[in-house]
Amino acid sequence: MKTPGLVKICGLKTPSTLDAALAAGADMVGLVHFPRSPRHIDLAEAGLLAERARGRASVVALLVDPDDDLLDALVASVRPDLLQLHGKETPERVGAVKARFGVPVMKAIGIAEEADLARVPPYAAVCDRLLFDAKPPKPAADGATVLPGGNGIAFDWRLVAALDPGRPAMLSGGLTAETVGTAIALTGMRAVDVSSGVETAPGLKDPIEIVAFVAAARAAWRAQDEAGTP
Ligand SMILES: O=C(O)c1ccccc1NCC(=O)[C@H](O)[C@H](O)COP(=O)(O)O
């Protein structure tokens, strides 16, 4: 029996876009707490959105290299189902966060070339889920802010197609309603994550694109299941 497909919509900031993701059937909703991001929300806002989603979808709190004080505050106000660590956290730090806070952890790993796959096993040993994402672009000469994720950039999905990390994994990076079906067909991934691909501008989610993305992912999984693809 195949695992059911999971769709995560990340970077939700408002009750109306959260509701749109829930109505579309998202399995996971991502709340970004990272002040440099156009999707950043404070802990009070994140707590309110988390309560709205509770029991309808898993609440994922996304942080970048958080210290224990921030994690203490976030876990108390958001009560996330999953912590998404999207910075330069080492495997040791991921293991320490999981042990201290008792919340499952998903670690994002940037993939650009085959050599990046060597970073997977140490994280697979300590986290609950891996998130394969594109690497951020190089900083621009004008010093414009580069985010560690949520850049709408895709990587070569074939790099993770044959991978069995021994942990549940999720595919992200520049996915859209138009590309997610191909990404699923190529990789066999049963979990996908999107942010920029369902936005009209950074941080502005589009309910119509959210519906289209969820439907496209589900259609791809249905096609795989009907074809009996392993
Ligand atoms: O979304 C952000 O602004 C962000 C900021 C800092 C670290 C990660 C961030 N986002 C990650 C994601 O939204 C997703 O998990 C994933 O990378 C997909 O992003 P996208 O390529 O925009 O679909």
Automatic annotation (TrEMBL):
Pfam families in alphabetical order: PRAI
The protein's name: N-(5'-phosphoribosyl)anthranilate isomerase
EC number per UniProt: 5.3.1.24
Gene3D superfamilies: Aldolase class I
Any one of the GO BP annotations: L-tryptophan biosynthetic process
N-(5'phosphoribosyl) anthranilate isomerase (PRAI) domain boundaries: 7-215
InterPro entries in alphabetical order: Aldolase_TIM, PRAI_dom, RibuloseP-bd_barrel, TrpF_fam
A GO MF term: phosphoribosylanthranilate isomerase activity
Keyword Isomerase: yes
Family to which the UniProt record says this protein belongs: Belongs to the TrpF family.
Keywords: Amino-acid biosynthesis, Aromatic amino acid biosynthesis, Isomerase, Tryptophan biosynthesis
Pathway listed: Amino-acid biosynthesis; L-tryptophan biosynthesis; L-tryptophan from chorismate: step 3/5
Catalytic reaction annotation: N-(5-phospho-beta-D-ribosyl)anthranilate = 1-(2-carboxyphenylamino)-1-deoxy-D-ribulose 5-phosphate
